[in-house]
């Protein structure tokens, strides 16, 4: 009786393994396609909007230029785009090659067990592993990103960080320490952080509760830490038409407010693009007497130092290096010239 039970269990296990070997790759493929579709949709929406703007501008320019100039410009743009696409595909191919190399030994070992030892258990486990890896990348990883939203960033709407000053374009907040036993030392030297326009400010307050925050690295030492925040550009006409001079004047106003509160010159701290903007403001002389120290972090002070960016700008036809920004869908959108 015991032998009969053992004999009937073997086909059941074999069937389960065969089903796993057959079904898991299909599950992985389906999961991968769904994840790729979501990923593509996120970027395709922005791509369509940008294409609409481009077509509006070029619709007017096509008739203002000669056919030969149009042809030369678009061939140059096509060449640039093909190079970018090729580099992207090559990068993807290298990553796929690296992944295959990492997984090849497991796959070969499982296949050898199936062919020479008539044991398909490892092959089934290998199939399960590939399906699970795909699920982690396309499902678990996005869910983990979404799950940290309540902890990510500054969440000024909660009122934790006091609003100190504002202009028609920016708001000035003092960053409160994330450690409960730390108090801001009002007699200490203050620091003003200037975030980049595009990347935004929240990346500088990544996960304050886990001590993974650039801004809180200062605030949690009791240093009076301030941060300049862009207002919503879709509903702020003053921001849509802002000039570099207005950026500098707003920064001066904030530095004056900080100096009045602490009686000390400000340390200006520019992060990424914010470092470049801060340097321009300093060199203009408008911050003289208000700022006595300057810190930058990963700031692109000279784009030509990047070979890739320098090559891109050198090959880009001049016509597309001065592309006006077409009106957006928001009612307060404004047409502005924009140099690349």
Describe the structure.
- With 340 residues, this protein is an alpha/beta fold.
- The chain has two domains: 10-65 and 94-147, no CATH class; 156-309, Alpha/Beta hydrolase fold, catalytic domain (Rossmann fold), CATH 3.40.50.1820.
- The protein is built from eight helices and six strands.
- The protein has helices spanning 2-61, 67-116, 121-147, 214-219, 237-240, 244-262, 273-284, 307-315; strands at 163-166, 170-174, 191-194, 225-230, 266-271, 291-297.
- It has a six-stranded mixed beta sheet with strand order 1-2-4-3-5-6.
- α1 (2-61) packs across α3 (121-147), α2 packs across α3 (121-147) and α6 crosses α7 (273-284).
- The longest helix has 60 residues, at 2-61.
- It is extended.
- The chain starts with a helix and ends in a 25-residue tail after the last helix.
- 19% of the residues are buried.
- The model is unreliable at 1-11 and 334-340 (pLDDT under 50).
Write the layout of secondary structure elements.
Elements: H1 2-61, H2 67-116, H3 121-147, E1 163-166, E2 170-174, E3 191-194, H4 214-219, E4 225-230, H5 237-240, H6 244-262, E5 266-271, H7 273-284, E6 291-297, H8 307-315
Parallel strand pairs: 3-4, 3-5, 5-6
Antiparallel strand pairs: 1-2, 2-4
Helix pairs in contact: 1-3, 2-3, 6-7
């Amino acid at each position: 009786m015991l032998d009969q039970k053992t004999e009937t269990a073997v086909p059941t296990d074999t069937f389960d393994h065969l089903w796993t070997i057959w079904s898991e790759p299909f599950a992985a493929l389906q999961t991968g396609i769904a994840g790729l579709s979501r990923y593509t949709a996120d970027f395709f929406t922005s791509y369509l909007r940008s294409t609409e703007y481009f077509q509006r501008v070029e619709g007017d320019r096509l008739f203002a230029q000669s056919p030969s100039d149009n042809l030369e410009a678009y061939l140059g743009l096509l060449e640039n785009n093909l190079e970018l696409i090729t580099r992207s595909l090559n990068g993807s191919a290298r990553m796929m090659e690296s992944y295959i190399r990492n997984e090849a030994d497991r796959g070969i070992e499982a296949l050898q067990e199936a062919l020479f030892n008539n044991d398909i258990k490892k092959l089934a486990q290998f199939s399960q592993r590939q399906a699970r890896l795909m699920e982690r990348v396309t499902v678990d990883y996005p869910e983990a990103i979404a799950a940290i939203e309540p902890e990510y960033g500054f969440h000024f709407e909660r009122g934790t960080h006091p609003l100190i000053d504002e202009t028609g374009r920016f708001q000035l907040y003092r960053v409160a320490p994330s450690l409960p036993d730390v108090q801001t030392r009002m007699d200490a030297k203050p620091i003003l952080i200037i975030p980049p326009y595009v990347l935004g400010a929240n990346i500088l307050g990544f996960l304050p509760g886990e001590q993974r925050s650039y801004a809180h690295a200062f605030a949690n030492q009791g240093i009076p830490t301030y941060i300049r925040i862009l207002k919503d550009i879709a509903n702020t006409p003053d921001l849509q038409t802002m000039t570099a001079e207005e950026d500098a004047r707003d920064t001066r106003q904030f530095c004056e407010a900080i100096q009045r509160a602490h009686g000390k010159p400000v340390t200006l701290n520019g992060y990424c693009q914010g470092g470049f903007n801060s340097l321009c403001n300093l060199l203009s002389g408008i911050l003289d007497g208000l700022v006595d120290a300057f810190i930058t972090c990963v700031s692109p002070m000279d784009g030509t130092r990047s070979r890739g960016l320098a090559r891109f700008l050198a090959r880009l036809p001049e016509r597309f290096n001065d592309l006006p920004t077409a009106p957006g869908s928001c009612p307060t959108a404004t047409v502005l010239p924009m140099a690349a």
